[in-house]
Design brief:
about 325 residues, four-stranded mixed beta sheet, Glutathione_S-Trfase, Glutathione S-transferase Yfyf (Class Pi), Chain A, domain 2, two-stranded antiparallel sheet, oxidoreductase, Glutathione-S-Trfase_C_sf, alpha/beta
């Protein structure tokens, strides 16, 4: 997942299969209903971004979803929540098998999300940023009726998303996996400077870009929803808890209650993954019991800022029966 650049700073490894699935013929992989299976994990924020995008756009019947469990070893993410520890569609126990079918002798990182071609069992791409962008744009012909436009202003979304990626999404990992005090402190101060900036930005507007939910909100939210359960303590991002940040806490609760967001989250799996897998940080493997998740249901009051969550579209319907997560509270 990462390397050390010699200064003790966490450096995220490059993606191993950075392909694209397109409708315009610009890649070898065409948009096609039923051809691909999205493999994610409830624990992983990068996978969560694509899972939310798929939900909001109503692509559940177009792209099937496989869920790797929260625990894995050096061999890769594992389907230990499925009967017989095997993905029922791909027929594999470890996701690494799909990477090795795509690239024999594959020795890069095995990450989620990964889009897998069902017929061949090969990973097509693990480029999460391209996946969420292409689901919103290249797959448009297969969106549900009433699907929102998640990319109404690409330049603004990418501009604000760049800072969110470096200082928040990846920033919490830079804090947690820093191997020197100096590297940790650089990441810590960058994280909190960015969160303070985002808090100020959101104090007078409901969403990050325009008056509707966009991909920028999805990017920020997946880190916020994991903050108190994992990043505050486990990754030492402990200036304050999310619950102590009035604007960001209300913003996060607003999105949590929005169809397509909170219904993709399993807090227990999040904690099991971070505290159970990162043995260099938590060698005992003890998983904390808190925090109290009922607080996510407290009214947020953000409606007063206006905004139209889905723009001219509509909310997605309930998740498919096989994709439902435990209720909060």
């Amino acid at each position: 997942m990462a390397s050390d650049d010699g200064t003790g700073e966490f450096v995220r490894d490059p993606l191993g299969v950075a392909e694209r699935i397109t409708a315009d013929g610009s890649s070898p992989w065409p948009v096609e209903a039923g051809r691909y299976r999205l493999v994610g994990a409830r624990a992983c924020p990068w996978a969560n971004r694509v899972i939310i995008t798929r939900r909001l756009l109503g692509l559940e019947d177009v792209i099937s979803l496989g869920i790797a469990g929260p625990l894995h070893d050096e061999r890769s993410w594992r389907f230990h929540l499925d009967p017989g520890d095997v993905d029922p569609v791909l027929g594999i126990e470890y996701l690494r098998a799909a990477y090795e079918k795509a690239i024999p002798g594959y020795d890069e990182g095995v990450t989620v999300p990964a889009m897998v071609e069902v017929s061949s069992g090969k990973v097509v791409t693990n480029d999460y940023a391209a996946l969420e962008r292409d689901l919103a744009t290249q797959w448009r012909a297969l969106h549900r009726d009433g699907a929102p436009d998640l990319w109404p202003d690409p330049d603004a979304i990418e501009r604000i998303g760049e800072g969110i990626f470096h200082d928040v999404n990846n920033g919490v990992y830079k804090c947690g996996f820093a191997s020197s005090q100096a590297a940790y402190e650089r990441a810590y101060w960058a994280l909190w400077a960015r969160l303070d900036e985002l808090s100020e930005h959101l104090a007078t507007r409901r969403y990050l870009v325009g008056d509707t939910i966009t991909q920028a909100d999805i990017r920020l939210w997946v880190t916020l929803v994991r903050f108190d359960a994992a990043y505050h303590g486990h990754f030492k991002c402990n200036r304050q808890k999310l619950t102590e940040l009035p604007v960001l806490w209300a913003y996060a609760r607003d999105l949590f209650g929005t169809p397509g967001f909170g219904d993709t989250i399993d807090i227990d799996q999040i904690k099991q993954h971070y505290y159970g897998v990162h043995t260099s940080i938590n060698p005992t493997g003890v998983v904390p019991l808190g925090p109290d998740t009922a607080d996510w249901l407290v009214p947020h009051g953000r409606e007063e800022l206006g905004g139209r969550p889905f723009g001219d579209g509509t909310p997605p319907g309930p998740p498919p029966a096989g994709e439902r997560v435990p209720a909060i509270g």
